[in-house]
Amino acid sequence: MPGQDRCRGLGDGGIVCGRRGPAFSGGYGEGDRGLSDVWRLKTAGSNDRNPTHTYTTPGTYTVTLQVYNNGGYNATRMNITVTDPVPPTASFTANQTSGTAPLAVQFNDTSTGSPIVWNRSFGDGTWYNTTDAAERNVTHTYAAAGNYTVSLTVSNAAGSNTSTRTDYIWVSAAPTPTPTSQPSHGGGGGGGKTGGPDGYNVGGDSAVSKVNVTGTGLSRLIVTGWAQSSPGSGIPPVPGIPYQYINLVPARFETITGATITFTVPVAWLDEHNLTAEEMVMYRYNGTAWEALPTTVVEITGTSATFTATSPGFGLSAITGIKQPEEPATTPTATAEPTATQTTAAPAGEPAPEIPLGTFALIGLLILVLAAGGYLVRRWWRRRQNPGLSRDYD
């Protein structure tokens, strides 16, 4: 009949119908023998039960499914809309944009549009490319001072896009120390070099501000202190109440024999943890245990307390508060009054206490009594030895 689909049987038991375009029939379907599906995909077709088709051109496409069996025919239609692919939009951030060389900066990708390729230029002549989304965020270290323009180009099947930030990273030169020789001491070897009377400024983000260092080959020494939230895997926590874990990293030196480390702690933090400045201690991890370093309070201002600690070197360190136990209250004990055989000396530099006049009189009387008694005893003894001395004569 005109206007209707005309179907004919195939030798394998399938049925094919056609109108206004090609259609492809399948063989036997699931279940009954003679069942057949026909897909119209405009302009292609398929006789698979669950076919896959790729549209390469934008547009709206009508998809028709026709199903047949020995009992009859049915069909359904739906539209598929295909749009042009969208290129990505490049965008990125950095965890810090200025500091002292060497400066480590972490760049994070914030691009949109599902990029699949990332191409970075750090501005110092180095590039980083990847197609792995897990590695699209990268850390780069700037070794020299300068201003650096950073760019990120992202791409996908639809195109690419570039984001450029001019003079985005500012790196300043590390302070140049003016080394002074330390005097040699007989029998103890040379004293090495130190970074002048004010020491070396310390870069990074820790509480350590500067260090004085002894050793050799220190004219170009750089020390960086990085704050850490914990000591690290496999390392026990430092004793006390930690204020900050610090990884002190030296560079450009030959040997280091000792260091005096200057650091600060906010007074507000001390008050919050009910600590005094005298209870703050710097520790150094020696590879197996934490070692307490000799720590001295330098000064306390309105907002911060400054300390120095003496250390044999650098590495993982920690600033912590060691709460001291309160001293037990003591009850004053009465002091016994001096007896006749005890004497008390007047404090040095003070006049001796005055002796009452009556005391002198009593002492004088006692001397007279002793003198008279001595005279009588002597007289009695002489008479006993010479009885004739006491005989009466007419």
Automatic annotation (TrEMBL):
<dbReference type="InterPro" id="IPR022409">
    <property type="entry name" value="PKD/Chitinase_dom"/>
</dbReference>
<keyword id="KW-0472">Membrane</keyword>
<dbReference type="Pfam" id="PF18911">
    <property type="entry name" value="PKD_4"/>
</dbReference>
<keyword id="KW-0812">Transmembrane</keyword>
<dbReference type="InterPro" id="IPR000601">
    <property type="entry name" value="PKD_dom"/>
</dbReference>
<keyword id="KW-1133">Transmembrane helix</keyword>
<feature type="region of interest" description="Disordered">
    <location>
        <begin position="174"/>
        <end position="203"/>
    </location>
</feature>
<dbReference type="InterPro" id="IPR013783">
    <property type="entry name" value="Ig-like_fold"/>
</dbReference>
<protein>
    <submittedName>
        <fullName>PGF-pre-PGF domain-containing protein</fullName>
    </submittedName>
</protein>
<feature type="domain" description="PKD">
    <location>
        <begin position="88"/>
        <end position="176"/>
    </location>
</feature>
<dbReference type="InterPro" id="IPR035986">
    <property type="entry name" value="PKD_dom_sf"/>
</dbReference>
<dbReference type="Pfam" id="PF00801">
    <property type="entry name" value="PKD"/>
</dbReference>
<feature type="transmembrane region" description="Helical">
    <location>
        <begin position="357"/>
        <end position="377"/>
    </location>
</feature>
<dbReference type="InterPro" id="IPR026453">
    <property type="entry name" value="PGF_pre_PGF"/>
</dbReference>
<feature type="domain" description="PKD">
    <location>
        <begin position="23"/>
        <end position="89"/>
    </location>
</feature>
<feature type="region of interest" description="Disordered">
    <location>
        <begin position="325"/>
        <end position="351"/>
    </location>
</feature>
<feature type="compositionally biased region" description="Low complexity">
    <location>
        <begin position="327"/>
        <end position="351"/>
    </location>
</feature>
<feature type="compositionally biased region" description="Gly residues">
    <location>
        <begin position="185"/>
        <end position="202"/>
    </location>
</feature>
